[in-house]
Amino acid sequence: HREWLQALANVRPVTSDGQSIELKANISSLKELDLALKNGASGVGLFRTEFIYMDRTMLPTEEEQFDVYRKAAERLQDKSLIIRTFDIGGDKSVGYIQFPEEDNPSLGYRAIRISLAQTDMFKTQLKAILRASHYGSVRIMYPMISSLDEVRKANHVLEQAKKELRENNQPFQENIEVGIMIEVPAAVIIADQLAEEVQFFSIGTNDLIQYVLAVDRMNETIAHLYDPYHPAIIRLLKMTVDSAKRQGIQVSVCGELAGDVLAIPLWLDLGIEELSMSVQSLLPFKNRLLHTERAASQGIIEQALLCKTSLEIRNLLERSRIKH
Ligand code: PEP
Ligand code: MG
Fold it and tell me: Ligand 1: which residue has its CA nearest to atom 1?
């Protein structure tokens, strides 16, 4: 079965009636990038860089980071690489940064909040990413954005990073694209405004579900409440995609839900053109996509929005699949 699945690596991801979706990979290391390419990923939709910061005793230098990002860009050649700036904090703490005592770390000092408080550390990473952009098709993504202010402040640091590189005659992609994770409910609610300031959205369903449903994604006791098919989630997906499309920016999905085969009709009907998923999901997902009819998912969103329970939504999605 494995060998048979592996043979799909070079097959184009397309529905039985010809609708293609780009399948990209979520990675956190160069080793995982090799697996992603082996499994036929057409790019990297999420490079989780926080792992470069973990399991060590001091901050990674600009050179150390540049080395990793450049290698990733080179291995991908003209395939796109979205590098997410560090999402440290929450469940991913590192020893050499002073973290306050927090009752609710996932609502606390993490991700872009650290970046904007410790701008030297942030700028170092941005310079490393910018320099790597000279070697491939690199884009930048900010995590945990909850306001327009944060985007503007982050972009301000990005401009400083660019200026410093220019002054040192270090080459980089001048018009590098910048996007944000949509993973905090506030970002969905103001998505129309955010869409005016960035070039792309990537929906992070892992955190979005946690924050919208107020269910800690790591808490086993309430894991049954962590429900990707809760009607509220469908509404938020629709709102986000509508805002992106109205502004004409690209929207993809990179949370675990992206690689859930049950969600395929949702992605097709929402008009999602790109999904980014764990390297293990790529081939099973493609296999299911190849046997899914795009036409059968027509109108699914409208119907899902009328559903009142997660079970109704799941049943709807099951039924919409073509039978074999
Ligand atoms: C997400 O929140 O959906 C996501 C992709 O990011 P992470 O899992 O790294 O928080
Ligand atoms: Mg997240």
Answer: 204
What's the pTM value of the predicted model, to 2 decimals? 0.97
Angle at the Cα of 38 from the Cα atoms of 35 and 44, rounded to 5 degrees: 65
Q: Whole-angstrom Cα distance, residue 281 to residue 26?
A: 10
* Residue 310 contacts residue 215 (beta carbons within 8 Å): no
List all residues 6 or more positions away from 90 whose beta carbon is below 8 Å from its beta carbon.
105, 106, 108, 110, 111
275-285 residue pLDDT tens? 999 999 999 99
Q: How far is the CA of 126 from the centre of ligand 1 (A)?
A: 20
Query: Cα(158)–Cα(85) distance, rounded to whole angstroms?
Result: 11
- In whole angstroms, what is the distance from residue 128 CA to residue 63 CA? 7
Q: Which residues contact 278 (CB under 8 A, 6 or more apart)?
A: 25, 26, 256, 259
Q: Is residue 27 within 8 Å of residue 47, measured between CB atoms?
A: yes
How far, in Å, from the CA of 11 to the mean position of ligand 2? Answer: 30
